[in-house]
């Protein structure tokens, strides 16, 4: 089968012919700048597809999503779809995969490696009391709603840019910076907690009132914030305490093991769930078997 597989660009009419994955999502991406969609066919039937795109904010890597028909797996269809994108890109390829999943095994088999790791990130209500005892008091913490207009959004932009700077920098364009600011517009300011050091914001537990569970992004406002670990613990303790009082069933954190203050804090907390790897195929990695 492998030697008879053909590749071509996705056509909108293909969505009705694809019987696996979520082909409807492909239609939403058609025409997006920087998006590439290739399909693999065998005897006229689509047996796999790959979608690749450039994010607005992080553009140092090209993201990919590979889907292969269940009855065509094990025939290097996915490998060759990845190479279809590699041949059209001068950036490393990247994707996300849950630890232990088939997706992780596939990308690692091609030479992929993790460039960031999200630890277990769900905090169940039954653990709220334990976390409050572990982190102690939360004096000198204020609600972001009490800050001057625009300051919470400024703190979000500062945090977001520095925390990604070393491994997935924000693109140096106004469009990328505007997208980061737009995320700040979704913040739940009343329940976002700001820890102060000498009267100035030092760490923030940003809260987004997402469906299912509030999402918390917590870090210091700058890499070299004095007493950053202690300030971050106070901000998180305040969010957990407020969540307990308002009946929140669980909190979903969003962060990385590599974050200099949140990473060590997350390792101490009784968080649940699977680890998530951000994987990349560097440009210097030769995809095994891609020419077959």
Automatic annotation (TrEMBL):
One of its GO terms (molecular function) is acyltransferase activity, transferring groups other than amino-acyl groups. Residues 1-126 form the N-acetyltransferase domain. It comes from the Bacteria. Pfam families: Acetyltransf_7 (PF13508). InterPro entries: Acyl_CoA_acyltransferase, GNAT_dom. This is N-acetyltransferase domain-containing protein. It comes from Acidipropionibacterium virtanenii. The lineage of its organism: Bacteria, Bacillati, Actinomycetota, Actinomycetes, Propionibacteriales.
